[in-house]
């Protein structure tokens, strides 16, 4: 197909709607043909962030091809790099056929998780802001092929980004070959909402990032792409993953209430402006409940400088409480995605989607003074936080952007229900089994039991407050007993601990199925 | 004394030499009178960073006063804030009389350490870049009195800083009252070497810090100080602490050799410029040995963007290998201090001393792409690093600036001898007893045994390399055995661990005096 015939067919009408470049129209092919261009052992950089904007057709075609090759005794695995999590058509499909050797920087797919935790995929869990710079430094390997979903191709060959930006700029620039998926399902009114900053460099050529408000546009709305590198263009019409959020339960509402009370207190004491500072919120049901809770809070007009725009952010925009949101991707329920798509023109003017190296950049998080709100798996009495490894070894999802925001934010809040597994796991433990956020980076811990403001406290002071305010009553006496005994048997009393017992709750859970003693 | 008499006495000649402001000359008094202005329970911000530029007379006078009050049954303690570590005349003297209730953000004094580890001082161990912003945010308390050593006072009342800058700008701005110590021992030729940046703000007023090279001067050479707040000026003539460095032993030389080989390799592969990127080096004998080793390495002209200028930096400047060094303080041996003072005019033109919020600012460390080189107490097989707590509970010194540089540097190197206490402690353990640097922030680990380049490796891959390259032969089989067994009994195999055994080496050391099994 060369696009030169005079009487357009239906297919060409459809094509010209989203692919304005004649050069790239000529590269249109099917997913199987495109997937055949990827060779065993390659490193493939795909688009996708929190289930948005990931390629849907080529990965599934690649998975079919891998399954066929394996059945013929020809093992076939790739190294898979993305923005963050994708969907079952990508991570799930490729993991199911054992097609992934190495995975970075984040994954939440249940099939892939199981393979990682069986030791069958090498998973590099990275700070999301550091992926693009490290790719440029050349220290995590070389990128062979990029597979990028876009919502359209312009006449000059530049790309209209999809529902996530992630690392797409870097993959397009660094890969030897590019495969594009043009997804008609993505709303055409998204055009113009993106801001792709092309000012990053490797040191010693780095300069300040010229952004001082979440609203600032510092780049262009389009992704640049060398058309000579594009080896295939595949048309799709498929929705993003878009998992539903659970309705907030009592615990989530209690946590949201504690956080709003804390923020109100900070405003009253003059330590936060009445419109707060730009909010950052992790992904998940509790984070979403906190955002929804802010609809009825007295803070306005708020802004968000965050990783993802989830349902609660739309609620805040609808309520006029949130003036605008800067992120790198959407992470919406199907209902919210419908709401977004029905009113995209209105929403798009109040949203900016950026590369994740910018949405999460420590320079910007610190400058803007983000209010960082993230979930956790467990915290210890001193406020060290484990966000990633259940029982210290089993990956749940990954550190994501939590480290980018927690260390550099104006205030760093971590939140969790005080127990999991029907009370058999305490989220507050004597010592975390793995550390993602050191005590210096954890300033506030919130459970449904209460909120611990740890700023300005020494480790021993922190322990008292965490046990008293955050622990579940069924574990509180056990924690207090540990803390008291640690003062007797510890090597030093700066942060008393008993190494022979500190991880015994985890060991007990592994042996008996509960952290509670018999 | 009002400075108005025509025939100057000897004392006035001495005074006018360093105190050009008539207003502030009128506030000259003795240390005991100045110390009497500090009230029990106050929060006092003092100057001082790595044993440089701390007040020497007032703290000792205060300690005498506290001892007297205590003897009379009137307990007297203060909260003590500084830049970083000071000297025996400050931390040591005040700790010895139980005069410190709360201490932040860093301490290395042996007397104070003992009190902290007996639970008698509440110690807040902070990222050094975050102290000034958190003081401005008002979340660590309110500052009553500042006690700041300077090397001179200008006619307009502005201050010529001393041998460290630290948090002096913030203490002078935030304190209700100011006591100045003017130390004649400090070299007058230091004037002009400082660069005090006055552009920091609280969000939402923060803007990019306009520094793109370590050489850039973005402020003024002088500290501003409201003369109305100055309640006392005390003259001193006393040297900084200036502890000698140990001559590098074979292990330090081996570590230096591994690091230089690694950097040479990176230059050859085109991942570092031939002049490297700005180097950052922690304080201590091994760090100093690495710097001295760089004298014979092929990298030039280097720059340093670091916390402190130690002996090895002078060697590099003398050898013409280091073009210039940016830091917040000196940390020199007595011999090097003599060398510096004898040639200050020559050195000062190649040095810039900045506030620690700038010397350590994540924005700048990331922009400049520092090569971060820091020491550690222990690392585990996955590359998590403990820099602060011996056996997980006993503070050694503090995290200092290591977190500022390790997370944001271009490459983050941690170094240590593979054993301590004559082999009874292994620096490589199954699991660290405390975490200061998470595995994502630890890219290279070096011992005298070898160097582990962990970039691009999954946790299981990291474990193999760390055990093989870094562990001492007497612990290597024990670590390999743990890693192998962990693959059998772990909850997940992403980063296999055995919670019931992971900290048993520490427990064994506490019980038997060695990590080696009987």
UniProtKB/TrEMBL annotation, chains A, B:
It holds the Pfam family AcetylCoA_hyd_C. GO terms for biological process: acetate metabolic process; acetyl-CoA metabolic process. This is Succinyl-CoA:coenzyme A transferase. Keywords: Transferase. The active site is at 307 (5-glutamyl coenzyme a thioester intermediate). It comes from the Bacteria. Residues 343-483 form the Acetyl-CoA hydrolase/transferase C-terminal domain. Belongs to the acetyl-CoA hydrolase/transferase family. Residues 28-235 form the Acetyl-CoA hydrolase/transferase N-terminal domain. The keyword Transferase applies. Its EC number is 2.8.3.-. The gene is cat1. CoA binds at residues 377, 397, 401, 421. NCBIfam families: YgfH_subfam (TIGR03458).
